[in-house]
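Lab meeting minutes (informal)
Scribe: AK
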Amino acid sequence: MIAAVAVFGLTSVNAQDTDSSQTAEGKWLIEANTGNATLGNTGFYLSTSDGVTSYNIGFDGGYFVIDDLALKAGLGYGGVSADLGDTSVFSYRIGGKYYVNSMIPITLDLTGASIKDATENPMWLGIGAGYAWFLGNNVSIEPGLRYNHSLNEDFTDEGVFQVNVGFALYF
């Protein structure tokens, strides 16, 4: 399946309309990404293991202030359901995304979460990179790698490495 997506993506890159770049100044961006249950995020995930179910739903949006540079913000809502009780998580993200050569997205952002009834909440500084496969003028698939550095040592002092797949709309 990954090979099929790669072949489809590479052929779609060659079919791009270079006269109206998706990442041009003044355009808007809406993203949905896969997520990671270990930190607050604005992505999508569902995980069940040993009677514990975790879920999240969220989106990011951005505006291209200059060609290839979008300022972004995102919101997410999720929770954990377990035998010992349920909790909810509200997540937020703010940062920027720069497209090198209009197709290699580099992100830098601050991500945090507010966990119901928690004494400490996580906050992360994240950096990521990937590749944007444009499927026409308004859609891209963006697989990527991301590293999140914990800014709250009372919550955790460990960093988190992620492999994500993002889907973006441009208008």
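Next up, CB showed the second protein from the same session:
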Amino acid sequence: MSETPVKVIQKATWVGSIANVGLAVLKITVGKLTGSQALVADGVHSFSDLVTDTAILIGSRYWTAPADKGHPYGHGRFETLTNIFIGVLLAFVGLGIGWDSISSLGHDSTTKPGMLAFVAALTSILVKEVLYRWTLIQAKRINSRALHANAWHHRSDALSSLPVAVAVIANLFFPDLHYLDQVAALIVTAMILKAAFEILWPALLELTEAEADNELEDKIQSYAESDPDIREVHAIRSRRTGSTILLDFHLLVDPSMSVDHAHTISENFKSHILKQIDEVVDVIIHIEPYTCAERVINPCCEDKQCD
């Protein structure tokens, strides 16, 4: 039996949490042993990922719950709030790395961590990159934006380990180029902030009731044109709630058609949309007669109806 979305989310998050704890302990321990403050700081960053993991483990129980009397449109906005939390935390992590890098510019590093620190940093990069790719696959599998956001948090941890590895190699081969660590960290900062923006912006648009999908209207019109019983579809509106989309529009049919027949056409059309577009979970259709008063796409002429 296939796993439910909440089970997939929790499994992926628990795997990430265990990896985060292991990597944090490894980096902090090696950092203390080798005198690498950068590696210690990177280990603390790994522990910060546990905060987002906890948010997802708690939040997923709510946003995957079915609609009820208190939340007739479902609980998808809990996922939106979780995405905002992850995006904000990710932005603070990026800004923190950037601030530390700018603050240390011009200061020569007296620490020479050695290859043990490099191995620890490289291990973190590899493990977190694998986690990023695997978590992204799970996110796409169940269409979870929160899990997608957490996947990027894994990648941010991999990127934050990069300056540590660069600093070690730089000390070995270019002992005079002390600024390479800071430059690499600033590049990482830009990448993390970009990821944070890509997580935050869609979530903020969702809270402001922005259109869910720019291409959705074209898809609906295309489906309508292939149905001979549908004369016109207009006033298409969509909004996103978490990883799902709610849709409504007006559907015009022959005015001489019976109510029962028109209802059957709308129900069949609704079923077709739900089958073709996975993200759409509910469709409200307002049936109207194909008359001059209701037509929008193909309006009537001034003096007579133009078919």
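CB comment: DSSP finds eight helices and three strands in the chain.
No objections, moving on.
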